[in-house]
Amino acid sequence: MADVALRNALPADRAAAVRWLQEYGVYAGVVVLLLFNVAFTDHFLSAANFRTQAVQVAPVLVVALGMALAIGTEGIDLSVGSVMALSTSLLSLYLGYGPWVALLTVVVGGVVIGLANGTLIAFVGVQPIVATLALMVGTRGLALVMLPQLKDVRDPTLLSLGSGDVVGVPYLVLIAAALAVVVAFVVRRTTFGRQLLAIGDSRPAAQLAGLPVRRVLITVYVCSGVLAAVAGFLSTARLSASDPTSLGQLMELSAITAVVVGGTPLTGGRVRVGGTVAGALLIQLLTATLIKHDLSPSWTQLAQAVVIILAVYAARERGKR
């Protein structure tokens, strides 16, 4: 009888562990990395280091918020890095008309790419990974045609945005935090958010229920495009230069990693904004930790791969129950 009870208890314990990993693993990972760095990384507790980490993670978080919305519909947006490149090209070309005109142009560029993605997915029926892959390649090419090489940014307003702060908190961090709050409110408290999750849970059922599936999908990809464009704007302000060749490279992978590690399942039907924020912080801390301990970028990529596999495994085990 004791052996039978033990065999019955093991699956329950394993299920509980997987459930805990799914719900709280990303937060535990952030805490573990923080404690490790406090103990073993020189000057980690300095204000300058915290500022650097926060500023570097801000554009990743902004892009990841849009990615979370797309994944919530059981889709994906691979074009976000290229949209960042397009935004830096547009910014450089239109900055002479003033920073706010340039920002408006950047946002319009994000809207156009989002509309293209959403139209291909919602009306033409192209798979999200294929549609956004095509826009990823085309948008990067367009950005390079518009601005084939790096160009310095000298606008004082833009430079102050990239380096300024309010009571010690950088503008970039405040903007990213405000956008996270807005996205969380939209997902949890609005009809649009409930429709988005319903479509991700079952698109045929959402259509039978009379939900505006096409309109919601287009809106989601427009939001993703706009957030990626804003991230490109912020990154350009931080770097004080427009470089469509390198800006946004592999950003789509960082964003997907943050979303998945944060507990948003690739199968859709759920968006964890708080988890996405923690996921972005986890990836940034992991990268910074390896760099500060003189490990090559290859180890960073391997570590991220392990984190992704653990997150997907936890989601898969949860889906079985």
TrEMBL record:
Mark the transmembrane ranges: 24-45, 57-76, 96-116, 128-147, 167-187, 216-235, 297-315
Q: Which domain of life is it from?
A: Bacteria
* InterPro entries linked: ABC_transp_permease
MF term (GO), any: transmembrane transporter activity
Query: How does the protein associate with the membrane?
Result: Multi-pass membrane protein
Kindly state which keywords UniProt assigns to this record, in alphabetical order.
Cell membrane, Membrane, Transmembrane, Transmembrane helix
GO cellular component: a single term: plasma membrane
- Please give the organism: Streptomyces avermitilis
Protein name, as recorded: Sugar ABC transporter permease
Q: Can you say where in the cell this protein is located? A: Cell membrane
Q: Which Pfam families match?
A: BPD_transp_2
